[in-house]
Amino acid sequence: MPAHETVRRLAEDYWETVLEANPTIATMLGDHRFDDRIEDVSADGEASVRSTLARLTRRLDAVDQAALDSTDRVACRQLGQELGDAIALIDHRVTELQSDQMTGLHVALLISAPSLAAPDPESAAKLVQRLRQVPTALQRAGQRFLEGAGGGRTPARVCIQRSLNLIDAYVGSPVDDDPFVRLPGPDPDGGWRGEAEWREALADVVRHQVRPAYAALAELLREQLLPVGR
Fold it and tell me: What pLDDT, in 10s, does the model give residues 137-196?
């Protein structure tokens, strides 16, 4: 395979890895293949992603730089930096420190919700499936926070308090105004007649799964992380 084509394939495979590991971002960007998935922040999940990134790095290292033009050499350097940064984030266990009000999964899901949309009935159904996975995702996030604290990587107390303020405000808000319930759906002018049923399904999942999961995470933050906060 020509070196130029190898670089192009590597870039495509890297981006595919990013999207698959970050399905919420994929949805925000209009790629709806992963709408029924949610981020896996468990140690095993990150280890799987790291393995893929390492394989891509080895492929990049094997590229014959002398056979590339200046544009492809720049692309290789950029791709190498991206791969190195992504691996470093996993190796430094940054997820264990993301119990704050800015970078954690619990915040990212809420912030991204207004930017999500279901362009067709299939995507709408998939997004309901994603929401059903919020309890598992938040439970895994909480476990990572505890693992970090158990290893001496304790969070800043003020950041935990701010996370609690955010979660408490969310859980106490009207369900009708919930960002997950208000996700934009398919255009009814296009013939879709399932919006009312879809909204009811969203609200049901939010009431019985999403919000209890956020409340459980808040309890973990309040009872187990806040006392050891710096």
Answer: 999 999 999 999 999 999 999 999 999 999 999 999 999 999 999 999 998 877 889 999
Q: Count Cβ atoms below 10 Å from residue 9 Cβ, excluding itself.
A: 12
- In angstroms, rounded to a whole number, what is the distance separating the alpha carbons of residues 89 and 103? 13
The whole-number average pLDDT for the span 21-42 is: 97
Q: Which pTM does this prediction carry? A: 0.94
CA count, 13 A, side-chain hemisphere, 106: 37
Residue with tokens 């919020």: 134
Both tokens of 152, joined, read 């001496």
Measured at the alpha carbon of residue 209, what is the angle toward residues 115 and 229, in degrees to the nearest 5? Answer: 80
- Residue 229 per-residue DSSP state: -
Angle in degrees, 0-180, between the axes of helices 70-91 and 43-61, rounded to the nearest 10: 150
C-alpha distances in angstroms, 75 versus 11, 60, 68, 110, 216?
Answer: 8, 11, 10, 34, 44
Alpha carbons 195 and 75: distance in angstroms, whole number: 44
Alpha-carbon span 148 to 132, nearest angstrom: 26
pLDDT tens string 32-76: 999 999 999 999 999 999 999 999 999 999 999 889 999 999 999
H helices of the chain, in order, are 3-21, 23-28, 43-61, 70-91, 105-112, 121-132, 134-150, 157-171, 195-205, 211-220
Are residues 107 and 166 in contact, defined by beta-carbon separation less than 8 angstroms? yes
Of 93, 98, 119, 122, the closest CA to residue 108 belongs to 98
